[in-house]
Amino acid sequence: MIQITKACPHCGSIDLVSNGHNKKNGKQKYYCNGCDRYGTLDAAPRYSEERKEDSESLF
Ligand SMILES: [Zn+2]
Q1: How far is the CA of 29 from the centre of ligand 1 (A)?
Q2: Quick one: pLDDT band at residue 5, thresholds 50, 70, 90?
Q3: Distance 59 CA to ligand 1 centre (A)
Q4: Is the pLDDT of residue 51 over 60?
Q5: Does the pTM of the predicted model rise above 0.85?
Q6: Which residues pair with 29 in a beta bridge?
Q7: Is residue 21 part of a domain?
Q8: Is a pLDDT exceeding 70 seen at residue 29?
Q9: Distance of alpha carbon 19 from alpha carbon 39, whole angstroms
Q10: Do the beta carbons of residue 44 and residue 27 sit within 8 Å?
Q11: Least crowded by CB within 10 Å, which of 2, 17, 47, 58?
Q12: Is residue 48 part of a domain?
């Protein structure tokens, strides 16, 4: 499973797990370990668009 870096809109927990995507609107689906709910986020996390050069320059 993939960890999501966004906070749960219900309880504010960041302990979310990816649960696929909604086929109708493409929204990221998640399961929240904090409040034990399933829900959707407005946008999918963009892991692939992060640039290596940017993160390396910070350190
Ligand atoms: Zn929650």
Answers
A1: 13
A2: confident
A3: 33
A4: no
A5: no
A6: 40
A7: yes
A8: yes
A9: 9
A10: yes
A11: 58
A12: no
| 36 C-alpha to ligand 1 centroid (Å) | 6
Tell me, in angstroms, the distance from the centre of ligand 1 to residue 58's CA.
Answer: 31
Ligand 1 centre to CA of 40 (Å) is: 11
Question: Looking at the domain assignment, is residue 53 inside a domain?
Answer: no
Q: What's the number of domains the chain is made of?
A: 1
What residues make up the domain containing 14? 3-42
CA of 51 from ligand 1 middle (Å) equals 29
| Residue 38 CA, ligand 1 centroid: distance in Å | 8
Give the pLDDT band of residue 47 (cuts 50, 70, 90).
Answer: low
Check whether 59 has a pLDDT greater than 70. no
32 within domain boundaries: yes
